[in-house]
Design goal:
Largest interface: A-B, 95 and 113 residues
Strand content of chain B: over 45%
Strand order of the largest sheet of chain B: 1-3-4-5-6-7-8-9-10-11-12-15-16-17-18-19
Helix content of chain B: under 10%
Number of domains of chain A: 3
Number of strands of chain B: 19
CATH topology of chain B: Porin
Oligomer: heterodimer
Shape of chain B: globular
Number of domains of chain B: 1
Strand content of chain A: over 45%
CATH class of chain B: Mainly Beta
Order of helices and strands of chain B: HEEEEEEEEHEEEEEEEEEEE
Helix content of chain A: 10-25%
Structural class of chain A: mainly beta
Number of strands of chain A: 32
Largest sheet of chain B: 16 strands, antiparallel, barrel
CATH architecture of chain B: Beta Barrel
Chain lengths: 472, 405
């Protein structure tokens, strides 16, 4: 080969070497490349491999890619990063960082231009050697940190700043923020720990919310059922109301109260002339008043009890039979509306305080309570002779407080004893309701029975006494 | 001795391998709560959390945490229909979580356990620790997280729990002992009827839909088994079977950040929620002999648009949170009642509208003033409100400070 041609070829080869394309030098994990103008991403394949202007590179989780450019500049992409090569000429390298973190080491000596463009700023290498890191987050905001040398950062509005070693700056759509000191490796590690753990703490609170919701529902149901109330004195009273069925022909409606000083209850227990249906709705509906026709079942015996651990008041009736009270001779027991109206009337009845008879009556196939005979020397239920004649009794009632919903029934006995029944309408949330609210369906009723210096208090969640009332 | 050696080994790990950083926060707010026009006493709320976050090495982290809250002023997002205006609540929780997060793996595994004591003081004769609904809650479980595109991930968790109410014993079970010989208790009556155990399952993920929209979704279900509570049958008596509840909730939220300029940014959110309670327990209205099947079952839907505005430089931005909420709950099998308690057919439903505004004003680094105003308005077709208010309006106004570390 003639020397001139050989020299020309050598010169050409040298020139070709100096303008070689950027090279993807290392790739670990999932690294993909999209050729300029192509639609799809392809695995980077074996390295080294060339990367041309317009090519895009992206990395997957925990992956890493190292690209070497003309003039020796290097770009190292961390996991979950995405960038493309804009220009790669001997004197000019430009990279478009779209997402994630890239670390660039470059030299801008000899008039070379090395820049990284993010959605919100352009970072340019200055001087002989510069190492910087650019992190692009969602929304395009970027954080630039300089580890070595000097870099110029210019936002989309034309404002610019020079960063030197150890400085960082945040840039968003609004432009450059004030530069601050970049965290030291120790600080960065701590910040990283803080970020992970704050996130975990947030998850911990989220798990709490599910358990709290379940607990809240549990409490809410108890309140909706009226099991956690406040009484007329503003004190906690727990209430449970339920039906007990000791046998097929018996049932008891019970209202149990619990206070800090113990239990008390009200109950109505009835024995019927036949087995009751499973569905007790029609049974309760006909207890106080059967209606225009006699019910298929009749209460033959009952006991209504108010009691606590120390005392009890019991009302007992027996010999129950259904009577058309609108058809009997007593106009005072008539039910409004005319027509037949059946009620159960009891032939024998007694009121017992702590097991001791206070008053009672007897009769035979009574059609009206007018026909009853007051008991004097014998127990009306058992017929047993009493130790002494029953004292006379005077019944009265009053509203002792004009402002509050409070009514007092007094039974004064000739032997000097008395039974007081106090009815109080309880304000929602505790306390005695105003007088005008007496009878309101919004209010619970509290009953206080006093006898021989002892008091039994009962808060009733329903109109159970009215539903089961047998004796007027 | 073994513990001492273990601690010594831990501390003698290569320098830099073990490091820790504290996470802490305190919020204290004072204010008043108004319920149906009645003002509760002026009181305050406080919330403090402390968690020393520990990195054992590049893969293992520990997150012990303690949190205490006190609530003297009720929030409108709480159960409100109870009318116990002096209600106060305290919660104390200790939790421990280990986190395995190897940098080379997409997975994070997080076993953990926690204990929480909730104390309620609702009436003036209840002292702290004597509250009827005081609760003790133990949980133990684990979460697995799969990182998709950081910081987004999919998380699945399973926790076993045990909740007990030490001060709640059914009156009926107590009566069975105290009033023996009287027909005052049913067969099979249980004592600690609110105590329950069970499991919580959770699945959640967040994903960027576009540069401007992110989706958060979650599904969680709490299965509760009431070991001492029997099923009420049609006759108002107990069957041998025990109560079991499933409380499932689903949420989906679209979050849309927007930035007008450096001094004005916003995060708008639109959240949808649905909840289903499914319980095998029935109800029984004793004074009417009315059987109420599947008494606790309900379905609930909610929609909550909200926006958070950040005004001012990022590090000291004033934050304004505004939200509007709509929620409807329908009890499928529980009939509504009229004012006298008579059942009038249709299923009970409630509708709730709420709005809230919070202003967070930074004073110095990590320290902000907080002002909150919340209001809720509830309506219902349930007219019987002797025990629980279904229709009400309530407002809470609070002001205080927040400190974060």
């Amino acid at each position: 080969m003639p020397p001139v041609r050989a020299l020309f070829l050598a010169a050409l080869l040298c020139a070709a070497g100096s303008v070689r394309a950027a090279v993807l030098r290392e790739a670990s994990g999932l690294v993909q490349v999209r050729a300029a103008g192509a639609d799809g991403w392809r695995p980077a394949g074996k390295t080294p491999r060339p990367v041309s202007e317009g090519d895009g590179v992206r990395t997957g989780f925990n992956a890493r890619a190292l690209v070497e450019f003309n003039g020796g500049s290097k770009l190292e992409a961390a996991g979950n990063a995405h960038f493309s090569v804009e220009a790669d000429a001997p004197g000019h390298v430009s990279v478009n960082a779209l997402f994630g973190t890239v670390r660039v080491s470059a030299s801008a000596s000899g008039g070379r231009s090395v820049s990284v463009r993010t959605p919100t700023c352009v970072v340019r290498a200055r001087g002989d050697r510069v190492v910087f890191r650019a992190t692009v987050a969602g929304g395009g905001s970027a954080t630039i940190e300089v580890a070595e040398g000097t870099a110029g950062v210019e936002d989309n509005r034309g404002a610019s700043v020079l960063l030197t070693k150890g400085e960082r700056i945040e840039v968003d759509l609004a432009g450059l923020h004030a530069p601050t000191a970049a965290p030291t490796p120790v600080q960065a590690r701590k910040n990283d720990l803080l970020a992970i753990m704050r996130r975990e703490l947030g998850f911990e609170l989220g798990r709490d919310a599910d358990f709290a919701a379940a607990a809240r529902e549990s409490r809410r149901s108890e309140r909706e059922l009226g099991r956690a109330l406040v009484d007329a004195d503003g004190l906690r009273v727990r209430v449970e109301e339920y039906v007990v069925r000791p046998s097929a022909d018996r049932l008891a409606l019970v209202v149990m109260n619990g206070r800090s000083d113990g239990l008390s209850y009200w109950s109505w227990a009835g024995t019927f002339d036949r087995a009751l249906p499973l569905n007790l709705e029609p049974v309760f509906a006909g207890l106080a008043l059967s209606g225009s026709a006699a019910t298929p079942w009749t209460v033959t015996d009952y006991a209504a009890t108010i009691a606590n651990a120390a005392s009890s008041l019991v009302e007992r009736g027996s010999g129950g039979h259904q009577v058309d009270v609108n058809g009997n001779a007593d106009p005072l027991d008539d039910v409004a509306g005319g027509g037949a109206a059946f009620k159960t009337i009891f032939d024998r009845w007694g009121l017992y305080a702590d097991g001791r008879l206070k008053r009672g009556y007897t009769g035979v196939a009574l059609q009206s309570y007018n026909d009853q005979t007051a008991s004097t020397t014998n127990d009306p239920l058992t017929g047993a002779a009493l130790a002494g004649a029953l004292p006379v009794v005077v019944l009265s009632n009053s509203f002792p407080d004009a402002a509050s919903a409070r009514r007092v029934y007094l039974e004064s006995y000739g032997d000097g004893t008395s039974i007081t029944r106090e009815e109080l309408a309880v304000e929602f949330g505790g306390g005695v309701a105003p007088r005008a609210s007496f009878g309101s369906t919004d209010r619970n009723m509290e009953l206080r029975y006093s006898y021989s210096g002892k008091t039994i208090r009962i808060v009733l969640p329903s109109n159970a006494p009215a539903v089961t009332r047998q004796i007027p | 001795m073994r513990y001492f050696l273990a601690a010594a080994l831990l501390l003698s790990s290569p320098a830099g391998a073990v490091d820790w950083t504290p996470i802490a926060g305190v919020q204290a707010l004072g204010g008043a709560h108004f319920f149906r026009g009645d003002r509760g006493s002026v009181s305050g709320n406080a919330d403090a959390v402390f968690a020393p976050a520990i990195r054992l090495n590049d893969s293992w982290f520990l997150l012990p945490s303690v949190r205490s809250t006190y609530e003297g002023t009720r929030r409108v997002l709480d159960i409100l229909g109870t009318g116990t205006s002096i209600e106060q609540r305290m919660e104390h929780k200790a939790a421990f979580r280990a986190i395995w997060a190897d940098p080379s793996s997409r997975w994070r595994l997080k076993p953990g356990l926690s204990y929480k004591a909730s104390l309620l003081k609702e009436t003036r004769d209840e002292d702290w620790g004597d509250g009827l609904f005081d609760e003790r809650l133990w949980t133990i479980g684990a979460e697995a997280e799969l990182l998709t595109r950081e910081p987004h991930s999919i998380r699945a968790s399973l926790d076993w729990f045990q909740a007990s109410y030490p001060n709640y014993t059914s009156l009926e079970s107590l009566a069975a002992v105290q009033f023996q010989g009287q027909p005052v208790a049913r067969e099979l009556v249980g004592d600690k009827v609110l105590d329950r155990d069970g499991a919580r399952m959770g699945l959640a993920f967040d994903v960027p839909v576009s540069e401007r929209v992110r989706l958060d979704a979650g599904l969680s279900s709490v299965w509760s088994r009431y070991d001492r509570q029997r099923i009420v049958n049609e006759g108002g008596q107990f069957d041998a079977a025990k109560r079991e509840d499933f409380l499932t909730s689903v949420s989906l939220a679209a979050r849309m950040p927007h930035e007008w300029n450096a001094d004005l940014k916003a995060l708008a959110s639109l959240s949808f929620g649905a909840g289903v309670m499914s319980s095998n327990q029935n109800g029984y209205d004793a004074s009417r002999g009315r059987f109420l099947p599947r008494f606790y079952d309900y379905r609930e839907f909610s929609v909550t648009p909200s926006v958070k505005l950040l005004i001012g430089p990022a590090r000291e931005a004033v934050a304004v949170d505004l939200s509007l909420g709509w929620r409807r709950r329908a009890y499928g099998r529980r009939p509504a009642q009229d004012g006298a308690g008579v059942y009038n057919g249709g299923p009970l439903s409630t509708t709730e509208w709420s709005w809230a505004g919070t202003l967070t004003y930074p004073i110095v680094k990590r320290f902000s003033l907080v002002f909150t105003l919340e209001r809720v308005s509830a309506t219902s077709n349930q007219r019987f409100e002797r025990f629980y208010r279904y229709a009400y309006e309530a407002t809470s106004a609070l002001a205080g400070f927040r400190w974060d570390w």
